[in-house]
Amino acid sequence: MKIHEYQGKELLRGLGVPVPLGGVAFTPGEVKLVAADLIKRTGNPVVVVKSQIHAGGRGKGRFVEQPEVGGVKVVKSAEDAAQISEKMLGNTLVTIQTGPEGKKVQRVLVEQGMNIARELYLAITLDRATGRNTVMASTEGGMDIEEVAAHSPEKILKESIDPAVGLQAFQARKLAYALGLVDPVAPRFVKFLLALAAAYDRLDCALLEINPLVVTGDDQVLALDSKISFDDNATFRHRELEELRDPNEEDPSELEAKNWDLSYVKLDGNIGCMVNGAGLAMATMDIIQYVGAKPANFLDVGGGATAERVTAAFKIITRDPNVRGILVNIFGGIMKCDTIATGVIAAVKEVGLQVPLVVRLEGTNVELGKKMLDESGLAITTASSLRDAATKIVEMVKP
C-alpha cells in the first residue's frame, strides 16, 4: 500500500520527524489560501507547488497538455501558486515511473520555500539478503538511487538494523560522519534518523524513502520529500492507514482482486495466468518466458479458492486488453480440480471467450476436472504438463 507525499509527511511529523510546513489543496482557490498562510507564517514569499501522484520523478516530469510545466514548481507569491496549480490540477503528468500513460493530478502539496545548503539521500527498507531492515544513505540526494547504484555504488552507505535492539545512535553517527556532516548538523541528523527508524518500525513500512533529505542554510535537517509504502500483511494492525488509500492511484483490477482476496499484479506481457500458489505462479511465469512469450499478470487464487473466486479471477484477466491468451495452471490439493473446472466453465459462459484458453490440472479430482472441461462444449484446450501447457498457449497466440 502506497500513500501520497503529503500524507507521509503528516505521519512523520506526528512521530517526531522534522518536515517543512505545508498543506494539501484540491483547487486553485485552496492553493492560494494555503500559500498565503505559509507566506504569512514564514515571512518567505517563496512557496513550492508539488503534484501529488504515486510516482517518483515528478520534478522532471511533464504534463501531457502543458509540456512546459513540470510536476514541481517554485513560485514567489500566492497568486503565482494558484496560477501554476491551474495547469497541474486535472491534467496528466508523465514521469519516468508512470509510463507513457501518465497519472492524473487531483491534488497538490503547497509547501514553504527552503534555503537548501545540501541534499542527501536516506531510506530504510528490508534487505532480503540479510533478513534485516537496513538504512541506506548517500551524498547523492535528489538523484534516482538506481542510477547512483549503477554508476557509483560506493556512494551508497548501509547500516543493518538489529531487530532485537533497533537502530543504535552510534550507527546513526557513523553514517553522519561518512556523509561529511559536522556539528551542529551531525547531531541533528542522528536525531532525525533515529526518529525515522522508529517511525518505520511503528508503521510497519516496506519502504520509507527521503529523497532529498536537506540541510538548510541555518543547519536544520528536514525531509523535503517522502515516499512511504506499507507492508500489506501488517495493515490489520493499522486500520487507520486504510483511510489514506487513494483508489484513483491504484490499478482497478488490483483493487478488485483485493476485494476477492486474490493476489494479483498486472505485468506487461500478453499471456494471462491463473494459478494456485505463489511458487507455482512464479514457475508458470518463468516457463511462459522460457518458451517465448511474456506473462500479463501474476494471479494466485490461493489454496482454498471457491468457484466464485475463480470466476472473479477469470474476469479480471480477460478485462486486460493486452491479454491474447490465458493459461490456467492448477495443482489440486486443498482446492480440488473439479472446483477450478466449475469456476472456469462458469466464467467462460458468463464473460465469453475471445482468446485461446489452455488449462493444466493436476492433483485431487484431476480426472473429474478434465472430464468437466472436455464435456463443457467450450473452446478449452487441456494440457498434460506445465511445459505442454506453456508451449500450447504460446503457439496459439503467435500471429
Describe this structure in words.
The protein is built from twelve helices and 19 strands. It has 399 residues and is of the alpha+beta class. α10 links the parallel β17 and β18 (357-363). The radius of gyration is 25 Å and the shape is elongated.
Distance linking N and C termini: 38 Å
Q: Can you count the beta strands?
A: 19
Q: In DSSP terms, counting alpha (H) and pi (I) runs of 4 or more, how many helices?
A: 12
| Net shape | elongated
In short:
By secondary structure, the chain is α+β, with helices and mostly antiparallel strands. Helix content is 35%, strand content 25%.
Q: Secondary-structure blueprint of this entry?
A:
Layout: H1 5-14, E1 22-25, H2 28-42, E2 47-51, E3 62-63, E4 72-75, H3 78-88, E5 92-94, E6 103-104, E7 108-112, E8 116-127, E9 132-138, H4 145-151, E10 156-160, H5 169-178, H6 185-202, E11 205-216, E12 221-223, E13 227-230, H7 252-259, E14 263-266, E15 271-275, H8 278-290, E16 297-300, H9 307-318, E17 325-332, H10 337-351, E18 357-363, H11 366-374, E19 380-383, H12 386-397
Key features of this structure:
399 residues, alpha+beta, six-stranded antiparallel sheet, 35% helix
